[in-house]
Each structure stands twice: as structure tokens, then as C-alpha cells.
Amino acid sequence: MKIEDARVIVASPGRNYVTLKIVTDGGIYGIGDATLNGRELAVASYLSEHVVPLLIGREAMNIEDTWQLLYRSAYWRRGPVTMAAIAAVDMALWDIKGKELGTPVWNLLGGRCRDGLLVYSHASGRSVDQTIEQVHTLIAAGYRAVRVQCLVPGLEAMYGVPRADGAGDGKGLPFVENDWSSQAYLRFVPTLFAAVRDAVGPKPALLHDAHHRLTPTQAGWLGKRLEDFQLFWLEDAVPAEWQDGYKILRHHTTTPLAVGEVFNTIFDCDRLVRNGWVDYIRAAPVHAGGITHLRKIADYAAPHHVKIGCHGAGDLSPVTMAAAAHFGIATYNAAIQEHGEHSAATHRLFPHHWSVTDGYLQPGDAPGLGVDIDEDLAGQLPYERAYLPVTRLEDGTVGDW
User: Fold this and answer.
1) Is 6 left (phi over 0), alpha (psi -120 to 50) or beta?
2) Residues 38, 72: Cα–Cα separation, whole Å
3) pLDDT, tens digit, 9 for 90 and up, residues 223-242
4) 94-111 pLDDT, tens per residue?
5) Which residue from 41, 43, 31 is spatially nearest to 90, judged by alpha carbons?
6) CA-based Rg of the chain, rounded to a whole angstrom?
7) Is 361 left (phi over 0), alpha (psi -120 to 50) or beta?
8) Which residue out of 211, 287, 326, 342 is catalytically annotated?
9) How far apart are CA 11 and CA 182, in angstroms?
10) Domain range for 38
11) Catalytic-residue membership of 280
12) Which of 151, 157, 307, 350 could form an S-S bond across to 318 if both were Cys, CB 3.0 to 4.6 Å?
């Protein structure tokens, strides 16, 4: 079964998504996600100009060979653009293989090893009371794990927290710069979790994202003070580029540590996993080379007692959520999945069989990935330029977001 056609579809149902559709000479097609938030057209161009011409005429069932070809032939390996493009091809080929064989992708990955994959959603408020109210709402809706974020007193806006003008948290707006104070943040977060844990009790799993903004010693101080609240994890406490920062951090706290939503390959995870500096790797199928490469990361992590908790914010399309669902249901050390809400328009654009019920993600039993794209609707939703927000420190310098 040969690849006959491949095309890139960029659509914006309130947020930009890049989708690759691969069609075979037998009429079977598969789709994959190539979204790189804030740099979507870079991946779309990479696919259209460089990857698609390599696919035409290739055997669609040879997924590993195609993955290796796309990774090694570029010479300039790795990086978010290249790996997102490879991921889209990989997802689409797994989708095709499942459809051709009449079985869901999770069955091709070895079958189920769990009944459902635990998910977490986001509770974000502009006050502690508002945040606690959102936590209660999510728990009542069936979530067993909740990421807790709250506006730091003294700041007007913060990524991950609704803005006062009702314009979301800044993600997807033309360009937003927010003020930031790590000192104010550090003073506030332990009091936030004391209040939340007191309100919800010991059972719900609570998570927190520091968004790469702290130094290793600051993060160690925070992690130590959060230990009594038994977080599921403290995410992205320090920038991941200098991995020895996690060595310092690990020596200061027993709070579980998670990192990796910006990781692209197994090499990004190597020292963190091998040295036991983190507990969870958060690489996503779309940014880490697809299902094929994410499985390699999981297999490397497993003997080191490191688990996988894939990134899954709303800026990753329902195609990535489908891939993560099939991966997670069949991968022993997949522990949890982020579940970022999609808009109603996004669900219409990407009809899918995966679902979240009683706090668990289910991939469904449809052949392939069980997700599709409405191309007619996509044509009515043109690309809209948007950026991720950034921060400015108190002295005016650009900070990590």
C-alpha cells in the first residue's frame, strides 16, 4: 500500500492547528497533528516543502523505516519544527495501519495494560477562593487530579490564569507581555496549597506548574515547603536547558518533579532519567516525534522508575489527544495525561472516538486513531497569527514564561 498523496491543513477554530493528511493508493487515509503553538507556519512549510515530497510512493505500512528516513536524512536533526513534522507523519501512518488491519492503534502497541488513563484538568483563578471553587467544580465533574494555578497577589496578569478583561490567559492573543516576580510567587504558593488541601482533603491529586521560572535553589525552597501537601508533581520548576539544575533541585526536595513538554527527543531526557533527577517526563506525541519515538522514551524511562505524563494543553489538537490515549492505554509506565479543554468548534473540526469519563481517558475501539478532520469546515477557519505570552521581570528584563 503506497502513499499517493499528502497535504497540510491549517485551520483556526479559535486556535491554530496544523494537520497532515496522508492518502494511500488503496483509498485509506490517516491524519496526524503537527501543531507548534506560536510557530505553526514553520512546521506547515517544513512539511509541505521538504517532507511531503519524500513520502509519495513510499510503503505506508513501514512506519519505523519512514521515521528513521525523516529523522536521519535531514542531517540537521531534532528541534521542535523537525520533530513536530515527523510526529505528524508518524501519527498518520499509525492511523492508516490500524484502519488497514481493522483494529485500534492501542491493539497494535500490545493491547491494553490499564482500564483507563488518569487525566488532570486545570483549576485557575484570580483569587484563592476562586481557585478553590474551580477545584471543587472539576472534582464534582469526575476529575481525580487537578492542576492548581492562581494569580499571584500584586500581579495584574499571569499565564495560565484568566485575565481581568476576560480575554483568557494571554495564550492565542496577538502578543502579550506580563509582569513577573519570583519572590512574590514563592511567598504565595505554599499558602495557596495549604488553603486548597484544607478545602478538598487528602484524596484528590494536586499538581502545579512553575513554568520554568525559578532558579534551582528557589525551586528547592518551594518544593521543600510543598512536601506536606503531597503534590502529584511540581512541573517545570526550572528551565530544562541546563539539566544539572534538576540535580540541585532533587537534592533539596522530595516533592515529585515533572519536566519535558518542550522535549523533542530521547536525548533531552537522557541524563534526567538516568540519574533519577525527575519522576515524570512530559513529552507529547506531537513534539517528540510521534507514537514511535514516545514509546522509545517510555521504554528507556521505565527501568529508572520514571513515568510518562504527556503534555496535553488545548493548543494540541484532538489528534494528539487521540495518539496520547492509544499510547497511554498500552504503555505500562504512562501515569497520567493532561486534558486541556477544546472549544466546541475544535470538536466539530476534529470528530473523534476518544472520551474522558469519571476522570479517565479512553481511546475508543475504532480502527486506527479514531479521529478525523472536517476539511470543508477547515476551509472556513483560516489561520490567525498568534503568540504565546512572555514575562518581564521587575527590572524590565525578559523572563521565562
Assistant:
1) beta
2) 26
3) 999 999 999 999 999 998 88
4) 999 999 999 999 999 999
5) 31
6) 21
7) beta
8) 211
9) 37
10) 3-103
11) no
12) 350
What is the reported pLDDT for 371?
98
Residue type, 213: R
User: First-to-last CA distance in the chain?
Assistant: 45
Work out the angle between the directed axes of helices 182-200 and 216-226 (0-180°, nearest 10). 20
Residues 71 and 127 occupy one common structural domain: no
The one-letter amino acid at 269: C
255 grid coordinates = 516533592
CB-facing half-sphere around the CA of 88: CA atoms within 13 A = 31
Pinpoint the alpha helices (H) of 286-372: 290-301, 318-330, 344-349
CATH value at residue 308: 3.20.20.120
159 is catalytic: yes
Same domain flag for 230 and 88: no
Catalytic residue among 46, 120, 143, 159: 159
Give the amino acid at 382. Answer: P
Residue 78: count other Cβ atoms within 10 Å of its Cβ.
Answer: 15
CB 39 within 8 A of CB 55: no
**Nine-digit cell string for 132:** 478553590
Report the SS3 class of residue 149: strand
Residue in the block written with cell 513536530: 84
82, 225: one domain: no
Distances in whole angstroms, Cα of residue 391 to Cα of each of 192, 212, 315, 316: 22, 11, 19, 22
Question: pTM of the entire structure?
Answer: 0.95
Report the C-alpha gap between 35 and 250 in whole angstroms.
Answer: 32
- Residue 223 neighbours by CB under 8 Å, 6+ apart: 234, 237, 249, 252, 253, 254, 255, 257
Check residue 156 and report its DSSP letter.
Answer: S
Based on the fold, state whether residues 25 and 129 are members of the same structural domain.
no
386 falls within a domain: no
Per-residue pLDDT band for 84 (boundaries 50, 70, 90) equals: very high
The residue whose grid cell reads 490567559 is 169
